[in-house]
Specification:
150 residues; 29% helix; 4 helices; alpha+beta; two-stranded antiparallel ribbon; elongated
Length: 150
Amino acid sequence: MGLLDRFRNVSKVARYQMITERGNGFYSWNGKLYHSDIVRSCIRPRAKAMGKLVAKHIRTGKNGIEINPDPYMRFLLEEPNPYMSGQVLQEKIANQLALNNNAFILIVRDEYGLPAELYPIPCSGVEAIHKNNELYLKFYFLNGNINTFP
């Protein structure tokens, strides 16, 4: 706007438009929580943040509190199995916990009884079975398989 335009009453009009969406925003519940993109977008940041945490084995003993006192435990928490890192394991477990309010990990032990590998169990249901004073868990998977672990 110049000086002469002020005397001629010439003005520019700015035009704005609202961005609106006319969708109804309704999501029908079909029992499959993870199939909703809204639910996944809410769960993913939390799971990613939990995966970035450093897992520690804290033990209280005669010497007080010890963090990762055994080297095998530190290595197990960093690389739980040959297929995934500790971060991926924590993310998978965080997803299972958020979706099903339950999360299970299979502990594979070596010949001395020490934990050697950790695997997440992505089950849809679980049943507790007591046999000979031992607890067994029967897992039901989405693909129809059924496995029982001690």
